[in-house]
Amino acid sequence: MKFVKLGSTGLDVSRLCLGCMTFGDPDAGTHPWTLDENASRPIIRHAVEQGINFFDTANSYSAGTSEVIVGKLLKEFTRREETVIATKVFFPANMWQGSERPNEQGLSRKAIMANIDASLKRLGTDYVDLYQIHRWDYHTPIEETMEALNDVVRAGKARYIGASSMFAWQFAKAQQVAKAHGWSRFVSMQNYLNLVYREEQREMIPLCLDQGVGLMPWSPMARGRLTRPHGQQTERTKTDVSGQSFYEATETEDGRVIDVVEQIAGERGVPMAQVALAWVLAQRGVSAPIVGASKPHHLDDAIAALDLVLSNDEVKRLEAPYVPHAVTGFA
Fold first, then answer.
1. Catalytic residue status for 197
2. Domains in the chain, ordered, with CATH?
3. 29 in Cβ contact with 55 (< 8 Å)
4. Where is each NADP-dependent oxidoreductase domain found (predicted)?
5. Is residue 37 within 8 Å of 72, Cβ to Cβ?
6. Which residue is catalytic, options 61, 197, 247, 322?
7. HEC secondary structure over 275-318
8. Is the pTM of this model over 0.70?
9. Residue 28: phi, psi to the nearest 5?
């Protein structure tokens, strides 16, 4: 496994981050395709055996059961000091159960302090390496949020803080507020980037490059759409309502990109997933794309992409069919 520094920090992370939304109680939430503890075990074990040390989850994934499973299995297969655990805050842990209560969600001081403690308890650890805000909170002053996150770091409950899924102006504002007060700043941006959604290249990525912020693109394979021929369905694509909303407006246009991925994969004799991921890995500023896996061989395909170097001609072919998309992924 190859390792890199996360942005401009000294933190060593594997070149791939294992996304843990796949793991959790299938009955907790709206994702019936998630894997319970027994089904998750071989995948997390395989990730550790292949040298992956970077794991990303969230308080809201499967009503917190993702954190429980990830924390338990990492204890089985690795040592805490060798592992980089990232989790997120914004959505309530029970968001899919329709029983939201006051102060359970958002980025108020009260919500952040309560959620970091709850996440640590579920993960079975006394600190996380990277604590990320899952979205921008339009109802809380950014000064309140950044001060609370700084206090989480000072309390030793998080080593670094990061952000996810917001407009570039929002990220810049948060960083400036933290800088002005001498508070901890975000070291990473978990943004939505893949061959069929490249809007982040306009403002967010240039901003992060300028500020030395590491990129952790989520959905580098467009929730599986870039891993199979256009139109082919899986259980997840049939039931993933949010994923459908991301792509339904540009289904035809995206299909042209997917067709090129399929063509190049055929020419190279590799799975489509490797081609799609190789493109993301080659983007400037990317520290570690977040990859999901429901089977051990999915990890093998992702790891193989680390050694797949696309030619200039292949990159041009992959990028040529792209059309601008409406900004999405922030809600």
1. no
2. 3-319 (3.20.20.100)
3. no
4. 15-320
5. yes
6. 61
7. HHHHHHHCCCCECCCEECCCCHHHHHHHHHHHHCCCCHHHHHHH
8. yes
9. -105, 95
